[in-house]
Every structure is written in C-alpha cells, then in structure tokens.
Amino acid sequence: MYRSDPGITPSPPGVQSGMTQSRFPTFLAAILTAGMAAAGCRSGILRSALEPPSPHEEYAASLRRAGLEAAALGRDWLTAADGAIARAFARTLPFRETGYLAAEKPEAVGYRFPLARGQRLVAEVAWSTSAPSRLFVDLFEVRGAAEAPRRVASAQVGATRLAYESERDGDYVLRIQGELLRGGRFTVDPRAEPVLAFPVKERDARSIAGLFGDARDGGARPHEGIDVFAPRGTPAVAAADGVVLSAGTNPLGGNVVWLRDARRGLTYYYAHLDQQTVGAGDRVAAGETVGLVGNTGNARGASPHLHFGVYTRGQGALDPRPFVAADRRAAAVLTADAAALGSWRRVAPRPLPLASAPDDKAPASSRLPRHAVLRVVAATGAWYRVELPGGETGYVSARGTEPSERPLRRVRRAAETHVKERPDAAAPVVETVPAGSELTVLGISGSYLWVRTPEHRTGWLDETGTP
After folding, report:
1. Which has the least CB within 10 A, 8, 11, 152, 235?
2. CB neighbours of 94 closer than 8 A, spacing ≥ 6?
C-alpha cells in the first residue's frame, strides 16, 4: 500500500482573509486612538522577516514613534498584549463570547484552544464603539515554554473574519485588543471547520466507521485512512481541487484513484471503488465525482464503502478525519445578561467558585464569598468572565451574581476616614470622609468594604478600622 508521495511539497502557510491595512496620520491621533506595533519585537513574538507587519504591530510602531512606549499607558498597553497570550483562557471550540474592553484601562484578552492539522479556524468578530476605533485580532501558535509564540494570522483593519488553516496539531491563542484609550464591546465567534470537502456525496462524518490507526490483518499493519460507508454506486468526490495522478488497481484497494492537491502539498487516496470515473492527468474541482463507492480489493464481501487516505511527504499517512469531519456542535446560546458588561456586581446569594473556564467541571482557582465584588468583562452562555478588584480573573455563573447598587448595610466611623481607590493600603485616597459620616456598604473584597460616600463616590474602606 502507498506510504508516501515523493512529489509532495511542504504545506503552504495558513490561508488568511481580511481587508487592507491603514496607518495613523498624526501625533494627536497616535495619542488618542493609535498604538504600538513593534510589540512583536518587544514581547519576543516570532514572525518571518519576509512577513508584512500585522495591524497590531503597525499600531505599536506608531506609538513608539510618538514616544508613548516610555509612558505608563503605552507600557500598560504592550504588557496587556503580552499577558493576553501568556494567560489566555482555555476554551473548547466552538464558543461565542461577548466582551467589554474598557477605555480607561489598557486591556486585551486571549483564548487558547487546540487545532488539528486539517482544520481551519474561522473566527467571526464584531466590534461596537461609541467613537471610531479599531480592534486588533491576531492568532498565535503556541509550541511550548521554550519557544516564543508565533503569529500565524491577523485580521486586517475593518475585517470581521479571520481564517487560518492549521499546519500542525497544537495549541493556538486568539488575541483581541482595542486601541489605546478606546473602549467598546466585541463578540467573538470562533469555530473549527474541515479544510476539505467530504469525500462521499450526501454523506458526513456520521458515515465514518473504520478509523485511522485501527489494527488491520491481525495487527500486522495500521489502518491508514478512514472508511466511509454508503450504498454501492454512491459518488466518491474530490475533496479539493487537484490533478489525478493515477487511476488503477491494486490487491488491497481494488479500484483506486490518487488525487494530488498541490496547494496543500497533499495526496488523497480513494480505494475499494466500484469503478473510477476519471483518468490520470484529469483536473477536477472539489465536489466532482472521481469514482463510485464499492467493495473491490480486500473489501470484497464487506459492505460497500470508500477507504479515504491523506498523505504527505515526510510523514506519510495523516489522519483524514480532521480534514473532512465537521463539528456539529453549536456554541452555547447566551443566556447571561450582556447588559451587565463593564459593570460591577457582587456574589449572591451564596459563595461562588471562580472557575478557569465557563464549565461546571472546570477547576476553580478560589471560592468567592457572599457579597464579593467583581467587574463583568464578558458574557458567554450562562457565565460571566469577571475581574476581581485585586486583578484576578475567571468565570462565574451569572445566576450567582446580582447588581451592586442595593445597599447591604451602613457604617459610621468615629474618626476621619480615608476611602481608597483600590482595596490596598498603598492605593490613592479618593475621598477623606469626616468623623461621624455614614457610609453605605455595597460589597466586600478581603478585609475591605466597597462603599458609597455621602458625596456619592465609591471606593474602598479598610474594615479593620484603620483610617
């Protein structure tokens, strides 16, 4: 049986889609709406010297030219970009998440998920803001702690779709970040699709029975493909545009067709055909018939089916399933209230796990006590992605939270009291409250109370009584 094709070339770079790039015009625009693009150099993100810079990298370069890299806001923007990759949230495709990026605080978010060779990531992204601004969407391949992430695809300015064909099995991070000092709401909807057409007409993955790697001939050899069962005479179709290398017979496969996909550097093998409908040298388009399903070769006596194989030089047989099997799952419907995005809420009515993913079975990093304060930054399914006052992030059940406007209780301090910007002794004071003033308690974080002052400011009060 065929093991490798010496005429196959290495896989090409991933296929991307998007729009043309744009540049920042003025210094003022750089301060108010633009950003930093040599972020790739600063963070150690890898890209080929021949690759054009991404919109994110061009934006970072414009901030560098404006001298903003040394400013706190510029540094925070770059740090957020790097952190979104390093601390990306583990997700399972497909998913849909609606998030909020604050204007006053440089933010970015990353989602980490596996892709198999033969899958195409398609990410639809919507961006809504009150003022014109751009959203940067980039995809990185993450190979391990010893190697820097490699940018493999970027959505162009104004594009609402990013597409990338995975070149190898591995983990990838989709990063989303807005411009400096510009906030807004985004919805990201990524999914994995097979890069090839299904090789049997009017059939799908539910018709696959024999799997790649299954033992054959009593364990003497592994199965180098998948078996798709269908009635005799069902058309077997080209999985991609290509050229027929040969159409002949062999003892194992019976009537076979070899189809070359030069763009991807792959060869497809069709076996057990009742008959072929193409000959060597024929050019076919994806979906065109190359033969009819049968049970010739060593499948004689078995139910009619197509043996379909995928081969590449250097590796031989690849698992065809990711190349042709569509994931029939749908992203969870959003039931959490997206109107809460960007707002502060609190845990109620009982303690709540802070999970690493929107899943009841996901590990919890901590358990939030009743009335703990959290900021809602995204909604997905029945979950909120939240940020705690101390910076910790994770997912909580939306049903376990409530608005924070309703007073919990009121407190008075005998002495003059400092209300802080954050629940931290070193945080700046937002208001000094005179002795005997009444403060409204709205929530908690550790030993601090989140309060509203008589002047209707909100801030943090040390519950231990320290002024």
Report:
1. 11
2. 189, 190, 191, 192, 327, 329, 330, 331
Report how far residue 448's alpha carbon sits from residue 281's, in angstroms, rounded to the nearest whole number: 76
Cα end-to-end span (Å), the chain: 81
**What residues contact residue 159 under an 8 Å CB cut-off, 6+ apart?**
17, 18, 19, 125, 137
CA distance 97 to 189: 7
- Half-sphere exposure (CA, 13 Å, Cβ side) for 387? 17
In degrees rounded to 5, what are phi and psi of residue 262?
-65, -35
**CA–CA separation, 182 and 133 (whole Å):** 7
For residue 8, name the pLDDT band (cuts at 50, 70, 90). Answer: very low
Q: Is the Cβ–Cβ distance between 21 and 58 less than 8 Å? A: yes
CB 350 within 8 A of CB 402: no
* Angle CA 253–256–260, to nearest 5: 125
Tell me which H or E stretch contains 156.
none
11 pLDDT band (50/70/90 cuts)?
A: very low
Which uninterrupted H or E stretch holds 347? strand 344-347
SS3 83: helix
Give the relative orientation of helices 72-86 and 55-65 as an angle to the nearest 10 degrees: 160
Res. 343: pLDDT tops 80: yes
Pairing type for strands 364-368 and 344-347 reads: unpaired
Cα separations (Å) of 398 from 91, 269, 349?
18, 50, 12
Alpha carbon distance 197, 266 (integer Å): 14
User: Could you give the percent of the chain with pLDDT greater than 70?
Assistant: 88
DSSP state of 372: B
Distance CA 305, CA 411 (A): 76
Residue 65: helix, strand or coil by DSSP?
A: helix
Task: Name residues whose C-beta falls within 8 Å of residue 48's C-beta, 6 or more positions apart in sequence.
Answer: none
| 291 CB-near residues (< 8 Å, 6+ apart) | 235, 236, 247, 255, 257, 270, 273, 274, 275, 276, 277, 278
Report how far residue 321's alpha carbon sits from residue 204's, in angstroms, rounded to the nearest whole number: 11
Half-sphere exposure of 322 (CA within 13 A, CB side): 17
User: CA 440 to CA 446: how far, in whole Å?
Assistant: 17
